[in-house]
Design a protein that fits this description.
There is one protein chain. By secondary structure, the chain is mainly alpha-helical. The protein contains 6 helices and 2 strands; from the N terminus they run ααβαβααα. It folds into 2 domains: about 50 residues, no CATH class; about 45 residues, no CATH class. It has a two-stranded parallel ribbon with strand order 1-2. The longest helix has 13 residues.
Length: about 100
């Protein structure tokens, strides 16, 4: 079901399709930044979280410093991730504007 809507001829999005199938079968949560996968997950009642929310949670719990979080965002962007912030230096400002980090 998931692969028909997500996976293309080059097998892109196979990971998202697999994660969705697993989460549906096991009642799990998926982390994804793929909008199509997120919409499909919501249609199927699967809880989703985005990567930046996971990073924010790491900062809030003290597992990542703000500097480490920024560096991680830069690394992910360097690997092809697309986020609403333009880079690690803008990550904290974005998170604060979104109300994800308490001042």
């Amino acid at each position: 079901m998931f692969s028909k809507r997500l996976v293309d001829r080059k097998n892109r999005n196979l990971g998202e399709a697999s994660a969705l199938a697993w989460a549906k079968a096991r009642g799990g949560v998926i982390f994804s930044d793929d909008q199509t996968a997120i919409v499909l997950a919501k249609e199927q009642g699967i809880r989703t979280l985005r990567t930046l929310v996971l990073i924010v949670d790491g900062v809030r719990r003290g597992l990542l410093s703000q500097n480490q979080a920024g560096l991680l965002v830069d690394e992910l962007i360097g690997g092809g991730a697309r986020f609403p912030c333009k880079g690690g230096s803008a990550f904290l400002q974005w998170a604060n504007c979104e109300g994800l980090l308490d001042p």
